[in-house]
Amino acid sequence: MISDLDLYIRNSAQNVKVTGIYSILSKAGVEFFDEKGRKGKNHKYLWHGTRPENLLSILKLGLLATPPHAIQTGNLFGEGIYFAETFVKSYNYCTESSKGQKYALLCEVAIGSVFTSASLYDLQTTTSADAKNKDTLKIAGKNIPNDKFEVTAPTGVRLPLGEMQRNETLDTNWGAMEYSEYIVKDRSNVIIRYLVSFE
After folding, report:
1. C or N: which end of the chain has fewer Cβ atoms within 10 Å?
2. Domains (ranges, CATH) in the chain?
3. According to the model, what pLDDT value does residue 199 have?
4. How high is the pLDDT of residue 143?
């Protein structure tokens, strides 16, 4: 799995120096995930970038949609927990610690039913009911992993290991993000599996 994670990182961020990969087992995280997420469908490993000062509370309490005690780094598409299928996207939400380290979390996410939008403009012209009835909102990016090389772990969780390519399914690039984002509404659909430290 470690070699897969290294490839997952370098497919979009070749110059990152990984200094550690740590398996995470959080009691609170397991309890919430067992409540709903484990039974959910469409599981995928996705990245979440964070600030060092948020790490302790995240590891203790798990990821929250709008944590009152944490410094916010992005909430463009409304409330939810934000993830990416490319390391470089989450990298932009990471800041250095006093020792020069940055941190990203690799999470197992039960993304379930997905409402896909091409841009913020596209989302604004959509009826709220369309997105409200889905488990996850996906903002499709211009650059995506080649899904021909996606692998499925023995646990059934999908890992997008393909190299980056242009997203040919987008009708227009107007207002589109460079990389896709997933906004998950329910924290019980998320469990942290790995912590990656890097420079």
Report:
1. C
2. 2-163+173-198 (3.90.228.10)
3. 94
4. 94
When pLDDT is averaged across residues 2-12 and rounded to a whole number, the result is: 90
Which residue is associated with the tokens 């470690």?
A: 2
Residue that wins the pLDDT comparison between 65 and 180: 180
**pLDDT confidence tier of residue 198, bands split at 50, 70 and 90:** very high
Residue-wise pLDDT for 25-52, tens only, equals 887 778 778 877 777 789 999 999 999 9
Beta-carbon count within 10 A of 126 CB: 11
| Eight-state DSSP code of residue 162 | P
Q: What are the residues facing 160 on neighbouring strands?
A: 150
CA distances from 154 to 161, 186, 193 (A): 15, 25, 15
Structure letter (DSSP) for residue 185: S
- Please say if 181 is a catalytic residue: yes
- Catalytic residue, from 79, 108, 163, 181: name it: 181
